[in-house]
Specification:
The complex is a heterodimer of chains A (about 270) and B (about 300). By secondary structure, chain A is α/β, with parallel strands linked by helices. Chain A has 8 helices and 11 strands. In chain A, strand 1 and strand 2 (about 20-30) form a beta hairpin. In chain B, helix 3 (about 40-60) crosses helix 10 (about 180-205). Classes of the chains: A alpha/beta (about 270), B mainly alpha (about 300).
């Protein structure tokens, strides 16, 4: 993919939390319509980097610069968090959760409320959740909740989408829907940053990959990612195999997961 | 109409003030209650109610006044309870402590401070029944004005931060990531709860005020699926409980505070039953065996 106008530039970002260095001198940028895959072992700082991009955490040094749009505003960011167990008593319906993704504080009435409702319905259909739109969010399975959160992140038409392990716990159909939506979004100029341990999925869909293990181990086009780079980051032997019928090369993600456990940073 | 007013004792100015005060309190609590329930701030509300006792004690000892509140004592109580609210919000905003631990630590300290102050000031706690269980019939003009002020502030706060409140109740981290000023929202809401607790104490008392901040919202969350319907249910239940509780207290010659709370509890039981019925019907419609918010149905 040809280089495009950078939407966000991370420059020499270092972050210390509770006396521990989480990120060290990380420099990278993401352009319009670009798909960046963030991989690396647990505790490598992937989620932390997303939180820095979101502005939830402030770097100890270095800076994050967002390109301003035509109106001089920072771009809208959509975010799909790495969710654990959600409150089983939370009463809102799936559609209400999606509608909550709309920014701004005022209640919406009349035409604007109807427009938002239609937008939520359209997105729920796009992620294959339209039949569950009136069910309580807490009643959905983990994978369904993630699809719903993806729809929520898209409701305000973001120009950057940050996804933290969105396909964990999602079935094959769900993964297919996720990937096809992400591909469509990049074609529309949306920048996507995907954190995942599913290396075959990332290498198949991302334009560029950043391998993070505290500092940036490697950063470049997905096609140029080599086996030994991943092995060095994950500290494990990795078996690469070829899918004969498609002529594609893949890595066995099982091996990567084992490696991730060996490095064992726990929750990021 | 006149007969009805006579039966409700509304010929008397103090009865009219009591009803107006009660309804104003219900509207404020009904508005705030869904956020308290969905943000899991029930224990915080309870803690602030107990902490306000320390504020009342400061008012009594420092201003040398009785249990009837004045502008001065309300000001001191509000200041003290707001300080406790800020302390709770500050301690619980870190990653190191759960909110309930922070509340538990702060409110017992404030409560104990009040008791110690009363002992030093040689005040007995025998007149504290009014503070514990409320005295709706003694609501004065000042309190009606303050309750109306609280309602206006609550309305402005909820309307101006409506969508932010929805995001905040769902997930604080996600809300922060979406650009919601979570910290300002948390502090603002805690201060509002502190004010509601102090003013509602006159109506239902320190021990029962938490019920008015929990039960209407609980009914709303059982019956509603959208922020707006949940809030409407909550306000409706708060108003109905106060009106019915007030009417019953006149009929039974019993204190209105506990009757208001008991009426709200009946509404809660009815809502719980209705929700179970709805879930079972939904589960049968889908082929049964699906888990609902109450577990396996």
């Amino acid at each position: 993919m040809p280089r495009t106008t950078p939407l966000v530039r991370v420059e020499a970002v270092t972050l210390d939390l509770s006396g521990r260095r989480i990120l060290e001198d990380v420099t990278l940028e993401v352009g319009e319509g670009e798909f960046l895959g963030l991989i690396g072992p647990n505790g490598g700082g992937k989620t932390t980097l997303l939180r820095v991009l979101l502005g939830v955490l402030r770097p100890s040094s270095g800076e994050v610069t967002w390109a301003c749009g035509a109106e001089g505003r920072s771009p809208h960011i959509g975010y799909v968090p790495q969710k654990g167990g959600l409150d089983r008593c939370y009463p809102m319906s799936c559609r209400e959760i999606v509608e909550q993704g709309r920014l701004g504080a005022w209640p919406l009435w009349g035409e604007r409320a109807r427009h938002l409702r239609e937008r939520a319905n359209e997105l729920l259909e796009r992620v294959g959740m339209s039949e569950h739109s009136d069910r309580p969010f807490a009643d959905l399975s983990g994978g369904q909740q993630r699809r719903c959160l993806l729809a929520r992140s898209l409701v305000d038409s973001p120009s950057v989408l940050l996804l933290d392990e969105p396909t964990a716990g999602v079935d094959r159909d769900g993964q297919g829907i996720f990937c096809s939506i992400l591909r469509d979004l990049t074609k529309q100029g949306v920048a996507v940053v995907l954190v995942s341990h599913d290396i075959p999925l990332v290498t198949r869909h991302a334009h560029r990959i950043a391998c993070l293990g505290g500092s940036l181990h490697w950063h470049g086009p997905a096609r140029a990612l080599e086996q030994r780079t991943i092995e060095r980051a994950y500290c494990c032997e990795l078996e690469r195999y070829r899918v004969e019928d498609r002529g594609q090369e893949k890595w066995r993600s099982e091996e990567v997961r084992v490696g991730a456990r060996m490095v064992g940073g726990g929750e990021e | 109409m006149r007969l009805l007013m006579g039966q409700w004792g509304l010929d008397y100015a103090f009865m009219v003030r009591a009803l107006i005060g009660g309804l104003l309190m219900s509207l404020s609590c009904g508005l705030l209650s869904p956020i308290v329930v969905m943000r899991r701030l029930s224990f915080s509300a309870d803690g602030l109610a107990h902490a306000s006792l320390g504020g009342f004690a400061i008012g009594m000892v420092c201003l040398g006044q009785g249990v009837t509140p004045t502008w001065g004592s309300y000001g001191l109580t509000l200041l003290f309870t707001c300080l406790v609210a800020v302390a709770i919000a500050y301690v619980s905003s870190g990653q190191r402590l759960h909110a309930d631990t922070a509340v538990g630590a702060c409110y017992v300290a404030a409560f104990s401070f009040g008791i110690v102050l009363l002992s030093i000031g040689r005040r007995t706690t025998s007149h504290f029944e009014h503070v514990f269980f409320g005295s709706l019939l003694a609501v004065n003009r000042l309190e009606c004005v303050l309750l109306a002020g609280l309602l206006v502030v609550s309305l402005v706060f909820c309307l101006s931060t409506w969508r932010w409140l929805g995001q905040w109740t769902f997930d604080e981290e996600l809300a922060r990531a979406s650009g919601v000023p979570v910290r300002a929202l948390r502090y603002g809401f805690m201060l509002l709860i502190a004010s509601a607790v102090i003013l509602a104490t006159r109506v239902v008392g320190v021990l029962l005020v938490t019920a008015m901040l929990i039960m209407p919202g609980a009914v709303g969350t059982l019956l509603g699926r959208r922020m707006l319907t949940i809030t409407l249910w909550s306000v409706l239940v708060a108003l109905a409980s106060t009106t019915v509780g007030f009417g019953l207290s006149l009929r039974m010659d019993a204190p209105p505070g506990p009757l208001i709370v008991l009426t709200a509890f009946v509404c809660f039981l009815a809502a719980h039953y209705e929700r179970r019925r709805r879930d079972q019907r939904h589960s049968i419609g889908r082929g049964g065996g699906e888990e609902s918010v109450f577990g396996q149905t």
